[in-house]
Amino acid sequence: MKKVQDLFIKLVKIDSLFRQEKKVADFVIKELRKLKLDIKQDKFGNIVARSKKFDSKKSILLCAHLDIVESNRGMKPRIKNGVIYSDGKHILGADNKAAIAEIIYSLQKAKDFSNVELLFTVQEENGLVGAKNLDKKLIKSKKALVLDYSFPPGYIALKTPYAAIVEIEIFGKSVHGARSNLNHNAISVSGACATTITDTIDPDINCNMGMINGGKAVNAAPSRVTLKLEFRSFSYKKLRNFLDKNKKDLKKIASERNCKISIKKLNVGSGYSYNKDDEFVKEIINNFKKINIKTKLESSVGLSDANILNRYGIKAIEIGYGPQRTHTNEEFVVIKDMENMSEFLEVVMKG
Ligand SMILES: [Zn+2]
User: 62 and 155 share a domain?
Assistant: First the structure.
């Protein structure tokens, strides 16, 4: 039988930028067919599969995503001392191809996998779009392991944050620069808004001011400035309260300066939080124990398909699966970690 890294190398050589997952989806479907699974693909492109002998009573969903964050076309993986790297000019794409390889490889090795259900999503990297558009009726499981936490096996993300993307548009007076008054200048007002957010932010909320757009010429006052910000917090309540109060504060700033303002929440991502005494968490820890891997219970600051699955009422937990320094050209995965993870999944399949 081939090794997990052979499958992995094949997968990372298939370029699969988000929205361009067709080739990798076809590859995965071909591998699942060899295992005689029942395979369905929803309208959005997400793949759901399970054994023909699937037992929904003890079922667990294994989830990975098919896309990568940027194209790695032409990437030549290098193997050195048991570690797989990219060629340094591209991302490796181990996020999330290592998870796909581990899942398929463990299915190939397991004698019976009637308790697992598989979900391979598309468009994870551009905002969990595949999971958000998933045909939920296709999923039977009530609990899920999402293999997307960029840490070695044994790391368990017990908490992930709630997130909101907020778009602020400030409408000022468009006049010639010589007649401009900073008080109704949209750039000046956007600065005042940014300062207020910085000065009043709750310490339990992380804010990233990611985008700003506006202005056409240095001698003209802009009629419009757009800011896009992202907020994350483990506390939904704190996030909601801050955004409500902030909306009032910014409206006041704009009106005092004779500008109009529009504040829109473009997207609110749900987080999740489990404690270490949760039955499912205990089951995961116990399964790692069976292969002598110590577990680390963590809070993740990232978002994954687990956030969306929880919103659908599935108890989903994101776990480490090997790759590190993901989303960079220094991304790597230790082969031993992929082997351990496959072994862990075999334990899960034993039920
Ligand atoms: Zn990922």
Answer: yes
